[in-house]
Structures are given as C-alpha cells and as structure tokens.
Specification:
Elements (H helix, E strand, L loop, with lengths): L5 E3 L6 E3 L3 E6 L5 E4 L7 E6 L2 H10 L1 H6 L5 H13 L1
Length: about 90
C-alpha cells in the first residue's frame, strides 16, 4: 500500500493529501509563485483548492504571514484561475 503524503492547509488547518492542496513558495531571491510540481525549493505554504479559502487567506493575509513577505494581487488572481481550472 502506497503512503499518501499529507500536508496542512495554512488557512483551515486541515490535514489533506498533497494533491488536494496548492503550494505557494517564496524562494531565496524573495520571489513568490505557485509551485504546481510541489518540488520547488524555498519556503512553502499550502492552501486548499477552494475559492472561499483563498478569499479568507487574502483578507486575513495568512499567506503573507506564513511566507513572511507581501504578496501582490496578481498572484492571488493567478491562484484563483488555477483553482477555477481544477
């Protein structure tokens, strides 16, 4: 039986399979981006693929606190498009 890696959503605090979450990464050059492979280097934060969760993260600045950097609106819009397309 294959082990399914679990990760915790920074917004809902739920533990879920990695495939049901999106990873947002801040690398050494302080670039923030969506890591769809789940393998990019840097500090990562996982959020559930849900628009309500994204809106909560945006309004309470949860991703910014976890990644310790300010996040531009363009990134939130990119995350929203990824969620809608899944």
């Amino acid at each position: 039986m294959k082990k399914i890696p679990l990760r915790r959503c920074v917004v809902t605090k739920e533990q879920m399979p990695k495939s049901e979450l999106l990873r947002i990464v801040r690398d050494k050059e302080n670039n923030v981006f969506v890591d769809q492979t789940g393998k990019a280097g840097g500090r990562g934060a996982y959020i559930k693929k849900d628009l309500n969760v994204l809106n909560t993260a945006r309004s309470k600045k949860i991703l910014e606190k976890n990644l310790e950097i300010s996040i531009k609106d363009e990134l939130y819009e990119e995350i929203e498009q990824i969620i809608k397309n899944n």
